[in-house]
């Protein structure tokens, strides 16, 4: 479907009937932390809830999983989880970053995506456990992630990966922000081997205070979906930024307005949710990349909230998201269209 006309974007927020019915019986999630000091204590609880969710109950046959650490610039050892073929097959390389608003989250959140990459492409996947706020504010998450990406690129052979068969970078939500930022850093600093494709799952691409004047009229979703039913809201995003403390005008938080532009980035696949306050982060970012000559593909899920793919795997649009994700990985790694 063509989403080039921003005047049609508002209609994407009409709630999906199946999701509306799901909300009637869905269990309530944990309340947002009102005190930043509570966040570290919430992480293990939220991790267990996520691991027990239907989206994580997948066939992991033929996938080997192991924990590693990666050296950071300040001497810290960044934890990461490696997913790779148990057969020892050498395939493409992928690096993923989890979501969680730069406050919570863990590498196995990207497990379903990582397992799909291993099973369908013999990929070796490294999911990075970057440091988070409130203990570590902006730009520590970016620094850890960039350090990890550079290290993985150099040491891919030690995992049995072959980046010449493809080198994918991706992430969801806050992890999508990190992936978008690192894709620009990789271009500007000439990462070797080079990235061959980017996968962005409902990413953060710009701070609301940094949206440039010529894009403000099209940046609607932060207000339109401010209180839409879902796991995030305008208020929760504001709270998250207050804790993470980003410079919204910095390239390292707002890749939409990257100071050296977007030309020369790898092909990029994006997913956007119609009922998401971050919807237009993805729609505007895709348009800016496309206008800069970057090959892009965009999939939008009308009437669905941020993170819906992890809520209930039986929803029809969740099934479509899984199918689209498989197409995205094939598009990036196998030349699929």
TrEMBL record:
* InterPro entries, alphabetized: AB_hydrolase_3, AB_hydrolase_fold, GDXG_lipolytic_enzyme
Look up keyword Hydrolase and say if it applies: yes
Gene Ontology molecular-function annotations:
hydrolase activity
Q: Which UniProt keywords apply?
A: Hydrolase
- Report the domain of life of the source organism: Eukaryota
Domain Alpha/beta hydrolase fold-3 stretches:
95-308
Keyword Hydrolase found: yes
Protein name per its UniProtKB record: Alpha/beta hydrolase-3
Its source organism is Septoria linicola
